[in-house]
Amino acid sequence: MRIFDPHIHMTSRTTDDYARMAAAGVRAVVEPAFWLGQPRTGPGSFTDYFDSLIGWEPYRAAQFGIVHHATIALNPKEANDPRCRPVLDLLPRYLDKDRVVAVGEIGYDSMTPEEDDAFERQLALAVEHDLPALVHTPHRDKAGGTRRTLEVVAASGIAPDRVAVDHLNEVTVEMVRESGCWAGFSIYPETKMSPPRMVEILRRYGLDRMLVNSAADWGVSDPLLTLETGRAMLAAGFTEDDVDRVLWRNPVEFYGQSGRLDLTGAAASGETFEGSSIKRGGS
Ligand SMILES: [Zn+2]
């Protein structure tokens, strides 16, 4: 099984995770820019982070035969902090970089006027830079937040098939399917979406414009839940080709719209990586 995780926060994972992912068949990842837990106090810590997403992290991934791309944005949560908003003016220089395949994660956290403004401005940047957009949906009031998200996307003028609306569940999938946007699902060990629930959604709504990710970050999460979902699909009677479509060809198609997806360097299946050449930092 070859796997492309279209939404995973490798910044928060160790080399052990990279090794396990490589052994499980993960050959490509996209890491969206997001909130880092500790609130940032100014644009400089964003640009250092963005530089790491297009420099250090791809290098780290390459040690394990995993191709790494990023999406860049001011995340919804920090869009509310006046100290962070100047980042919006710095985004264009990152949106021109080769390894950046979408604007994201954008969207809503608490649905404030500040979030409205940042969301609209960043959708406009996606159109201007001819990039797809990766949209986060809020964890509170998921249905209301997703509905409003789709209205803002529709009003922005971006083509719906260039937008992935992520972190969906049984309540929000239908409205996103109807909108023509891609539907993204984050599979978690305890909350939100599980592999068996994901399989039911695929059975009901089909495989077209469906993205499955592990979203793994510092919370309780597991970077191998993409593999578990593939196994659950096979156990439920889906074919190997169906699994390949959802876990590989769909993310290639979505991010391929950027014109920048370069999968040379992805390990051939069966190829293993025994060790990392990354040196230990510090003293
Ligand atoms: Zn995320």
Automatic annotation (TrEMBL):
Pfam families: TatD_DNase. It comes from the Bacteria. The keyword Ligase does not apply. Keywords: Hydrolase, Metal-binding. One of its GO terms (molecular function) is hydrolase activity. SUPFAM superfamilies: Metallo-dependent hydrolases. InterPro entries: Metal_Hydrolase, TatD-like, UCP005295. Belongs to the metallo-dependent hydrolases superfamily. This is TatD family hydrolase. It comes from Nonomuraea bangladeshensis.
